[in-house]
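Title: Comparing notes on inverse folding

I've been comparing how different people in this forum approach sequence design from structure. To keep things fair, I'm posting one structure and asking everyone to reply with a full sequence. Here's the target:
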């Protein structure tokens, strides 16, 4: 029997098929939902249409079904939810928490270079608020993106230490069920991040926050490569008056060269000629015992055993 107090989700992007790392995240989120007798949803995050591969979303759903990871509702598709994102952006604009910006990446890089700020490999340069309303608005007559005014959001965020996430002297604090206490000043580390791109496409950060709120997501279980998105999403949740879920970021699966498996790094799609073998590998990456057979008929029994084992993990109580 499933309860209404827990709703989790797996939210893959159809820029390619699931790989071994993706299955770890999918299995972890499914196990956490089942261990809490909760609901498990699947959301296809196809908001960045130019990067999505035709047919990949349906193929991902088939991969999950082959592994017997079945959602409790029909999958949601971000590409069909633009009206929700538009309403959220309008809400932020009315509150003075979102503004148009004409800056390009070159503009931002030039601003930092002029001040001797060297870029860090793998990290975007923080946006310094050049188009903020108090600084005169957009700097050029060009198609504008929309950005979140992080400094104003931080000033409005809760400061109560008993809240799920709270602000102290401009630093956001929250707790990850596996990683422990976390903190970041979003305005310093990231700056005013994009909500809607200049080409009209919705940005991931806005879409995921709006969707999690609309679907009643209470627990987010995903790979540790997405942990650095969490403070931005919490700040945006606060700005929209949306609840903050509990977060758990799972260990990453690394390639032989030490880099994380990802579609950007051309990770091979899952080999599901033996789905039990693929599930065993994912379970072991999560610290769960391997099942003793590769027979697909044994998948239900293996999943049930892993749910029981998951309840014994350190983070299971939350």
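Reply #1:
Here's my take.
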């Amino acid at each position: 029997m499933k309860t209404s107090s827990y709703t989790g989700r797996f939210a893959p992007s159809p820029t390619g098929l699931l790989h071994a790392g993706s299955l770890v995240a999918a299995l972890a989120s499914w196990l956490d939902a089942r261990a809490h007798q909760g609901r498990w949803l699947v959301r296809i995050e196809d908001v960045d249409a130019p990067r999505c591969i035709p047919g990949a979303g349906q193929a991902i759903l088939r991969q999950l079904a082959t592994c017997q990871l079945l959602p409790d509702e029909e999958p949601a598709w971000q590409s069909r939810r633009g009206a929700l994102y538009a309403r959220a952006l309008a809400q932020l604009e009315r509150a003075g928490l979102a503004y148009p910006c004409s800056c390009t990446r070159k503009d931002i890089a030039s601003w930092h270079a002029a001040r001797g700020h060297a870029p860090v490999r793998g990290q975007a340069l923080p946006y310094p608020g050049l188009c903020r309303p108090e600084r005169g608005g957009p700097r050029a007559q060009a198609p504008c993106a929309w950005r979140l005014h992080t400094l104003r959001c931080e000033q409005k965020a809760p400061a109560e230490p008993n809240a799920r996430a709270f602000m102290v002297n401009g630093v956001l604090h929250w707790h990850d069920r596996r990683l422990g206490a976390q903190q970041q000043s979003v305005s310093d580390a990231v700056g005013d991040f994009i909500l809607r791109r200049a080409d009209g496409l919705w940005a991931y950060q806005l879409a995921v926050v709006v969707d999690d709120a609309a679907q009643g997501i209470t627990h987010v279980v995903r790979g540790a490569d997405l942990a650095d998105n969490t403070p931005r999403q919490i700040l945006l949740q606060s700005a929209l008056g949306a609840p903050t879920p509990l977060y758990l970021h799972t260990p990453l699966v690394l390639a032989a060269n030490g880099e994380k498996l990802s579609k950007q790094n051309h990770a091979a799609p899952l080999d599901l000629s033996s789905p039990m073998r693929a599930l065993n590998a994912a379970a072991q990456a999560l610290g769960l015992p391997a099942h003793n057979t590769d027979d697909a008929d044994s998948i239900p029994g293996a999943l049930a055993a892993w749910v029981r084992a998951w309840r014994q993990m350190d983070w299971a109580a939350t």
